[in-house]
Amino acid sequence: MDQPFALTSDLRNNCLVIATSGYVNNVGGEAIAKEFARHFEKGTKKVVINLAKSKVVNSIGMSFLIEIIEQLEESGGKLVFTDLDPAVEKMLAIMGLFKFAGKELNVEDALKSLSSRK
Amino acid sequence: MAGTSKPARTSGTNKLSSQIDSLLKGFRKTSTASNLPDLVKSSSRLLGTLLKKSKIDILFRPQDSTDWQLLADGHANGLEQLRDFLGGKKLSAYTLKKTPMGICSASLLADNSVVVLALKPPTAQTKHSDSDEVLLRLFMSLFEGAYREWLHRRNEKSLVFSLNHRVLQLNSLIDTGIEISKLDQGAPLQRLALERAASLTNASKGIVRISEGERVVEESFFPDRFATQRGHGERQTISTSFTFANRTFAFELFEKESRHGVIPFEDTDQMLLDALARQVHASLENRFLLEKELENQRFEQDMTVAASIQKKIIPVKLPDIDGYDVAGINIPSRSVGGDYYDCIPLADGSFALVIADVAGKGVPAALLVSSLHAYLSAYLEGTLPLSQLAQRLNKVIWRASTDDKFITAFIGILKPETGEFEMLNAGHNPTYLLRGNGTVEEFGAAGLPLGMLDIDFPYQSERITIGKGERLFLYTDGITEAVNEREEFYDNEKPLRDFFLQHQTPRSDAFIIELISDIKKFTASAPQSDDITALYVRRLP
Questions:
Q1: A-chain residues near B223 (CB < 8 A)
Q2: Which pLDDT does position B90 carry in this prediction?
Q3: Domain residue ranges in chain A
Q4: Chain B residue closest to A3 (CA)?
Q5: Which CATH architecture has domain A6-115?
Q6: Could you tell me the sign of the dihedral formed by the alpha carbons of B281, B284, B290, B291, in that order?
């Protein structure tokens, strides 16, 4: 049985790393957006979202992720997804999220790719 | 601000012209804002740069709402001005009005939302000029256009998102079908289908319940366990179910999510749930059929092994008996049979001639044949009289078989040198003996079939002598009851006793060949209905 949605976050080299677990739906998406907004207001523009423990995402959850991507895009920032389940990766690809967001195998790779950005 | 002299008017006109230019340029950039707060914020900033000393508030009332939101707060007492401005009237289109505190301008936007701009002069003594009003009217007009563009962009994005979501639903339906049909996966199919259905329909939660009659045997919740309750509003839940192997699989989804709370499920959501449930149903049926097929294959393999074991029980070659010519045959109607025959050399130089027929066919009959063979071989090593041997066999076969299984058997002990033949018929077909004078003697059943009843039945053996040149014929009912296409019995149409009398072949195996050939001719294309077994003994002259 899946657990209720939860997330953890930390700042690593000026990058916000959010790790989620559970269903990324309205509740999950909103929680991610709030956590992002809290750091974005303080100037954080590089974000990693680790979805290793989130195997199911719905379109409402994705709409929150799209908003984060748009906000980062407008401010010259970048979002990178990591540890994607193949089904989730395909969903995000079909919904067009990778047009503006990146994907990496794991958080370390994502941090490396973001560190090369100004 | 207000001015009266001509040069001042020219200067004012130039200033207004320049402000209009700035406004137009500014809105080109402003109209690309991705959300309403950004659009209002940048618009307000733009106007602020033109009317430097004025205080500006921007209020917004979304369509179908009565609440006003203060989106830009420049301390212009916007809400108070709005009250004065409205004076209890409804807005119908663009309006501009001077209020005791400044100027209020309202505009009905493309989606019936309303935007109100409230301007307050820097001091109570200052008034807004005509050019300020012109600027304000232009600003509102440009804002309406920018808002319309923003609406278009938002609708376009929403449409693209919606189309992508439909593609995603279709794709996921196909992918889920493929995943569900992978027969070796460990996770229960219904769980995967539930997850996908919840995700694709934006349900906040779901359950799949498996029941046998009224009893729930398994429940799976998504995303985690929750208390199910009755009384959800209309279309707040959707459900579907199917029955497979006396189990009902019921899927139920709850609370379709949107960014603005729970909304009713759509028809396509129900279609998706139905489709995913159908995929689970089809996959369960396919699994069942595959398992059945594998079971059949295993059964066939077991039957092949059983047949090879039985082949070792039925003699490939009968022993040579000095002064006798013995031949036999066994043709099972299935891969394993329920008939048995043998010619077993005994320690004292005599031979046991046996023929038996188990009631029934297939594996159960073959198992009893094996038991009979084992017990008979063991008992024949001793010195039991034939009647006691039959009694013991009756007991052990009764214990080894089910109520509907028994064995008819003919057992005879032949002393080759003298032709003495002690025989016992336990419910079997009559045995024929062709005497030297051309008469046929019949030795019918003198006892119950073996294993039929759990009693000490007093089997009686009979002693005869087989003279030189005389012939003995043992057979099972697969011969007498061989059926042709008209469902006629062989023995009824062509009495076996007559065939035995008329076919006095020089060799025993020739008799067997002629008999089988005659039966085949009689049955023609009708399938063999029972095992065919015969044993033919000719004492050489």
A1: 2-5, 22-23, 25, 56
A2: 66
A3: 6-115
A4: B224
A5: 2-Layer Sandwich (3.30)
A6: negative
